[in-house]
Amino acid sequence: MADNEKNTKKPNALAAFGKRTAKFVKDCKGEIKKIVWPAPKNVFKNTGVVLVTIIVLGLFVFLLDTAFMSLLGLVMNVAG
């Protein structure tokens, strides 16, 4: 029975790693081929929408900050 156990070989870990890596790379290539890239016109349009949104929200936060700081200044002057 001991001889039988010696004769059974474990699969080479390095070879198994290589096979898994090759399968991973092959699967990645297949997934990359499925990607649909947007047209440049759409990218520029969406970039414009994002920039306008950022500017509008930034101004809104700035105005709120200014209003609250003025309010706080009034409260501090009244309390002092």
Structural class: mainly alpha
- Average the pLDDT over all residues and give the rounded result: 89
Question: What's the count of strands?
Answer: 0
The helicity comes to: over 70%
Overall morphology: elongated
Topology diagram in text:
Blueprint: H1 2-7, H2 13-33, H3 40-79
Describe it for me?
By secondary structure, the chain is mostly helical. The protein contains 3 helices and no strands. It has helices at 2-7, 13-33, 40-79.
Features:
3 helices; mainly alpha
Summarize the structure.
The protein is elongated. 84% of the residues lie in helices and 0% in strands.
